[in-house]
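QA checklist item 7 of 12: single-chain prediction sanity check.
[x] sequence parsed
[x] length recorded as 167
[x] structure emitted
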Amino acid sequence: MLKSVLSLSAALFLSLSIAYAEEPFDPGVPAPKVSADYYNGAEKVVVHVSEAGDEKKYLGIAANINNYIKALDSTGKKTEAIVVMNGDGLGMLKVAKDVEMENEAKLPQRIADLKAKGVKFQICYNTLTGRKIKMDELYDAKAEDVIPSGVAEVGRLEAQGYRLLKP
């Protein structure tokens, strides 16, 4: 009897915890309504990451990208997002690799989630060679992710109509 009461209590606590965690926050103002054409021309975005940071900073960048995608999705638009990393910005994938096996690490999963949404992560070859960084030091990095020059790639993408975001 005591075992079933404890099990029931644990189940109730868990369901209340889940329900509480899923409760949306009310900022006291309704969400702004936007028309279907509100984000016209903003479907293609390049996010330039070139500064050093820790997991918290890179999680903020990942959140910005995710929020951008969500905003456009709300109007039925699909985002083509490319993250270009050069210089200290390769820290995003280095930090994710370093914390990958830690229980509290969130960055590797956020990167994986963004990749699952179609976000591309591009790595500057000049930075790899100049800083002697091996691909296996970077989280989920593949040969096809490497571009010749990060800054030149940002310029190339802007010339193709991508909007530059510099978080």
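[x] summary fact logged: The first strand starts at residue 44 and ends at 49.
[ ] second reviewer sign-off
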